[in-house]
Design goal:
Main location: membrane
Radius of gyration: 21 Å
Pfam family, one: AA_permease_2
Membrane topology: Multi-pass membrane protein
InterPro entries: AA/rel_permease1 (IPR002293), APC_superfamily (IPR050367)
Strand content: under 5%
Structural class: mainly alpha
Subcellular location: Cell membrane
Number of helices: 17
Number of strands: 0
Distance between the termini: 51 Å
């Protein structure tokens, strides 16, 4: 039985699955195969498989929690029910704060492929990335119904293109490309898993949209299962093709997906990859921005952020104020990354570190809230995610710093007198 009466949103199974896929099948498929190959060589396949296996209990845990507590607060709502307001504020601030960095890197990844296809330089990459970022925020400003419909079309085209890329490339698979299999040893595999976590961190983002489903109890488990099956198929095919077809060159290629598409489309591969890059980037940003904007409004509703941001937290409405704050933060993160020349590896590991913290805390909450097999899955998800998170080393200082800020905000807010108390003192 649900812990609250399900709200009446607008998302059905098809558009809901498309939004989930947008969160998982993000720009990671464009950049991460090369980054993982650089970290672990062909043994990156082990990291891909391990994270896919980990995704099963993680996805199941988030689906179970979201079905029982469909709310825009998502991970913060789950964490509050298990550990109280402080933990919920920390978890919420983690997710809200990391989206601007993740959105910025997603836009830059897509823009890099588009610019490469057009033969343009670094300035063009920045302009294209800014355009993609603006488009994602505009789609969310218009409303989730339009965003969800657009996502359904985008994800269908994207999956078809990725399937063609893998089918065209796999006949060129050469076992010799898998030797040496693990040139950097076990440490390399853990390093690859750490950066690949970016590609698998999307279940928590979609949980913030649970209140938008017409029937969360029935739909969320079905949507999660469909999304997980599609993600597993796409990622395994892509990882296998990258290792067995591209071999060592994958570690040095800035556009590995273009290299795979070249086997089937020749000179047309670059423009096709540019289309794929735009779809991936927009799809991921669309879902993460939608989830984070609703989270910001829910946090404000619950007192963990300024009350003025709470407007629009109800299902079916767009939280424009929270969305505006998120847009400003994303623009700042984008400008900062461009100014300091932060590479994608740095940005993706930073994003992974914070999202790993979100996943661990939310899954730990599930251990307290769920029972039976669901609790066992939650315990497995918590332990495995925490183990992979240790490979992110000093990047874990980011979630620690954000946690300190969240707790400091709560402390200052509680010390600040209520308006009516001030009025009483002044009247006296």
């Amino acid at each position: 039985m649900n812990d609250r009466t399900p709200p009446h949103g607008s998302l059905g199974t098809a558009r809901g699955t498309a939004l989930y896929l947008g969160a998982i099948l993000g720009p990671g498929v464009l950049a991460l195969p090369g980054l993982a190959a650089q970290a672990a060589g062909p043994a990156a396949l082990v990291a891909w498989v391990a994270l896919l296996v980990l995704s099963i209990p993680v996805a199941a845990t988030f689906a179970e929690l979201a079905a029982r507590r469909p709310d825009a607060g998502g991970v913060a709502t789950f964490t509050r029910a298990a550990f109280g307001d402080r933990a919920a504020a920390v978890c919420g601030w983690w997710f809200f704060s990391v989206i601007p960095v993740g959105a910025s890197s997603a836009a830059l990844v897509g823009a890099a492929y588009i610019a490469d296809a057009a033969g343009l330089g670094r300035t063009a990459v920045t302009v294209i990335a800014a355009t993609l970022l603006a488009m994602a925020f505009a789609a969310n400003h218009i409303g989730l119904r339009l965003s969800g419909g657009a996502q359904l079309v985008l994800m269908g085209l994207l999956i078809a293109l990725l399937a063609v890329a893998c089918v065209a490339a796999l006949p060129h698979f050469d076992p010799a490309n898998l030797r040496p299999f693990a040139p950097h040893g076990v440490a390399g595999i853990f390093s690859a898993a750490a950066v690949l976590f970016y590609a698998f961190s999307g279940w928590e983002a979609a949980s913030h949209l649970s209140g938008e489903f017409t029937d969360p109890t029935r739909q969320l488990r079905r949507v999660t299962a469909l999304a997980l099956a599609i993600v597993a198929t796409v990622y395994l095919a892509l990882a296998t093709a990258t290792a067995g077809v591209l071999g060592g060159s994958a570690a040095h290629s800035a556009v590995p997906l273009t290299d795979l598409l070249a086997y089937g489309f020749g000179s047309a591969a670059a423009p096709l990859t540019a289309v794929c890059a735009a779809l991936l980037s927009l799809g991921a940003m669309n879902t993460f921005i939608a989830g984070a904007s609703r989270l910001g409004a829910a946090l404000a509703r619950d007192g963990a952020m300024p009350a003025s941001l709470a407007k629009g937290h109800e299902p079916g409405r767009t939280p424009h104020r929270s969305l505006a704050v998120l847009a400003v933060l994303s623009g700042t993160a984008f400008a900062g990354a461009a100014w300091f020349g932060l590479g994608l590896d740095v940005q993706m590991r930073a994003t992974s570190a914070v999202l790993a913290g979100v996943t661990v805390l939310a899954c730990a909450a599930a251990v307290r809230l769920l029972t039976g097999r669901a609790r066992v899955r939650a315990l497995l998800a918590t332990g495995c995610t925490a183990a992979i998170g240790t490979a992110l080393s000093w990047y874990l200082l980011l979630p620690l710093g954000i946690a300190v800020l969240a707790l400091a905000y709560l402390h200052l807010k509680r010390r600040r007198p209520l308006p009516h108390a001030v009025a009483v003192r002044q009247g006296a």
